[in-house]
Each structure stands twice: as structure tokens, then as C-alpha cells.
């Protein structure tokens, strides 16, 4: 398990397993957000198994599966709704954590200074400078 804080209320992780959920709850997280579609890779845990383990550990759970490289306006709206409605801190996961940070970065545009977005993502080990620059250009 590789939990990477982006802000006080939002962290990301590469793929988690059902057996990780008690430790995630013990670390103080209150919600888990899945951004990975089922069946993306062989051996990947099923989202229903993660959801059941999350609920058994006392965590809220929401799935907003995003196909890598194909973010739609509806995806972004669902991601924003999850962040607004689920109790924080939230742990979001996908294959590597990059999709989650990318969605978070897009969601923060207009709410947070671009330099702060890039710095927060970098602090978690992700380079969002190119994405943020592209978003700034419109």
C-alpha cells in the first residue's frame, strides 16, 4: 500500500487490495474513491470486493471509473461530486494514482493557484506541470 497525500483532505494511491482497507481506515481516511474501471488489467481486484471491504472497515466508498486518457465532462462532474459529498479525508486510487491526481488537478483549476496545484501534485510524486499549463492555455 502506497498512500500519497496531495492535500490534508485528499490522497492518492496505486491499486489497493481488499485487505488494505482496515489499514486505510486506521490511517484516518473516511472515504475511498475508485477511479479505475474493472478489468483494466489481469489480476486487478474487483471494485465490488474493494467496496465491501471499505464498508466493512467503516469507510464510505464511491466508484467513478475513468478510462485512461478519456476524461469526459460527466466524469469530471462525478469526480467533483464525490469530493464534495464524501467525508474527508478521501483516498482515491487507480492503477498508479496518476489518473486520480490528474482529475484532482483539473478540478482545482479556478479554485487554487496553478502553481499550488503543481506543487501539491509534485509533493505526492506526480508531475502535473504539463497538464496545468495546457489547462491554463484553454
TrEMBL record:
GO terms for molecular function: hydrolase activity. SUPFAM superfamilies: (Phosphotyrosine protein) phosphatases II. Pfam families: BLH_phosphatase. Residues 2-110 form the Beta-lactamase hydrolase-like protein phosphatase-like domain. InterPro entries: BLH_phosphatase-like (IPR005939), Prot-tyrosine_phosphatase-like (IPR029021). This is TIGR01244 family phosphatase. It comes from Roseovarius spongiae.
